[in-house]
Specification:
Shape: globular
Bound molecules: 5'-deoxyadenosine, iron/sulfur cluster
CATH architecture of the largest domain: Alpha-Beta Horseshoe
Oligomer: single chain
Distance between the termini: 57 Å
CATH class of the largest domain: Alpha Beta
Length: 441
Amino acid sequence: MPRPAPKSFHVKSFGCQMNVYDGARMAELMQAQGMVEAGADEAELVLLNTCHIREKAAEKVYSDIGRIARRDGGRPMIAVAGCVAQAEGAEIPRRARAVDLVVGPQAYHNLPALIAEAAAGRVAVDTDMPVLSKFDALPARRSGGPTAFLTVQEGCDKFCTYCVVPYTRGAEVSRPWTAIVDEAKALVDGGAREITLLGQNVNAWTGEDEAGRRQGLDGLIRVLDRLPGLDRIRYTTSHPNDMTDALIAAHGEVASLMPFLHLPVQAGSDRVLKAMNRAHDVGSYLRLIDRVRAARPDIAISGDFIVGFPGETDAEFEETLAAVRAVGHAQAFSFKYSPRAGTPAARMDDPVPAEVMDARLQRLQALLSEQQFAFNRATVGRRCAVLIERRGKLPGQMLGKSPWLQSVLVDGGAIGDLIEVEIAAAGPASLTGVRTERAAA
Ligand code: 5AD
Ligand code: SF4
């Protein structure tokens, strides 16, 4: 049934930082159409920016749709975006009739037209993956807080056998050099002091600079390092096989490149890694970490792990624990294997029983938490800069990030300040810092 076009919107993003970035850009796009941001309970359009990486994440969408459709303020227009939209497309409004609009991650620049179509009473679905970059069709970036995400690369050609990303996000595409530099400048003009470069395989980014020279992510980092007002650069997520010598060297040479590396290994058994089609083994991964640490000795290492991949034995899981011990993580994410339709692993025999998976995940997470706490304790007594991001829970308390991406509670300072602190105490998940006299530039 036709209805008035929505004048307000609410975006709810799930999953990875790429979705957070996409959610922000969709919000900017709707604002450029004159729509205003509103709470989930009163917005005339609620957009769920979904994640398809594991079954639990994907199923959550349907319970959310039901809840939104029944909310007190009356049923809003409901849009489903993100990777579930890409994977399930027109199936979504068939299964959940309250859904008015479905838009994939490569098509969201068409959102205004899709909203108009839905307002005219037609279910609007767009899951095209046009070669023409959506980025060109989006309005310029607007100011945000002191930290910002900037997508430089999308998609994945690695085809790990468990993963839906190559299907939902498509093939690896790098955004052009100048588009990225311009967007970074706009973010800095809007108040960003830290930019995190995003990509499903961010370290596979490649392009040409203004002079037509071929560049890798290290080149991009070096040019952004020279941007006045940008104090901190981070990047995520990387694949071990795209960790070039030049990028490793940048970690030792570029002052604004923060000492933090998220470099998933996924498992510690060479047989499992092969079955995952990871194209690296444990030995090559550990040698890589050694080289990164030689370039930047204090670097914080983060990773992702999957337990219970089909056929994983107890002994193979022990190898994962051994690899974790060999690395020493500042933080890490770990997940139970979740079969995803259409991926090669979903057709593999020998599933690991749920209770075995649970027990393995518990042991792995206990070890990773122990490592995180040890890493935090090792920073006590150090002086470092903290970028204040938001208020803490107590009056006057502020929360910021250390160079190693730890949360640091400090007394005083304002959002956007980069202050010098001495780390006074460490907890399992955060630090307490005391301001020292000298303010960082
Ligand atoms: N099951 C469990 N975890 C998965 N990941 C990706 N696909 C799956 C899956 N099918 C994890 C990987 C990846 C992270 C983003 O999610 O560890 O690095
Ligand atoms: Fe998925 Fe592997 Fe690509 Fe990462 S590298 S997005 S895990 S296929």
